[in-house]
Amino acid sequence: MQSYLCDETVVTVRPKPAENVVVVKPANSQEISEILKLANQEKTPVFIRGGGTGLCGGAIPTKDGLLISMERLNKVVEMDVDNLMITVESRRNPGGYSQGGGQCRAVLSPPSR
User: Fold this and answer.
1) What kind and span of H or E run contains 70?
2) Domain limits at 95?
3) Is it the case that residue 99 has pLDDT exceeding 90?
4) Is the separation of the CB atoms in 70 and 90 below 8 Å?
């Protein structure tokens, strides 16, 4: 749980996290929608967390509430090799594209001469 309460912000300026935080890890946009509807009904603060690599404390929950972790949203949604485009979910690790098979490598590799 502690790893969800901080990011890469320098310790001397890092905001103090709230004490009562619930971490949720939705698997898709439908689950995110349902979580946000409930939070809105209950007037519960919501914080979004991607990879926790931010440098300004934006993902640190500074009020009691919900922290939505995007860690499960890590898939390649669509690949358009002809137009050199990849559509990914919000938490797709760029280093993982090379493991996406030949098509990913074809899109991301520089053209040969």
Assistant:
1) none
2) 76-108
3) no
4) yes
CA angle 70, 75, 80 (to 5 degrees): 135
Report the b/e string of 31-47 with b at 16+ CB within 10 A.
Answer: ebeebeeebeeeeeebb
Residues 6+ apart with CB under 8 A from 20: 64, 65
Whichever domain contains 36, its CATH number is 3.30.43.10
Domain count, the chain: 2
> Would you state the structure tokens that stand for residue 86, as one six-digit string?
């990849």
Residue 19 half-sphere exposure toward CB, CA atoms < 13 A: 0
pLDDT, mean of residues 29-34: 94
Please state the separation of Cα 109 from the chain's center in Å: 25
**42 with 85, same domain?**
no
pTM of the model: 0.71
Tell me which residue has tokens 């002809």.
82
Please compute the mean of the pLDDT values over residues 15-28 and round it to a whole number. Answer: 93
